[in-house]
Amino acid sequence: MLMTEYDYDTDIAVQREEAYEDGLSKGFQQGISQGISQGIKQGAYEKAVETARLLLSFGDSIEKITTITGLSGETLQQLSEDLQLR
Question: Is residue 7 helix, strand or coil?
């Protein structure tokens, strides 16, 4: 039977390192997840704005576009003004 000497300080250091690596891994995964979620939201918003611009150029009403895109009336009013300035 092989008996090794137990070293408390080494054991604590190993446990701390394992906890650090586990926390780092979890934090990294959480950051990736949040980044993906934000990217999806931003992409959906940009698509809604693109759709709103197209519908505004066809002369659809702001109320109708609000219903279709989910964008606020204020946002659509600003987009409408921006299109008229071009």
Answer: coil
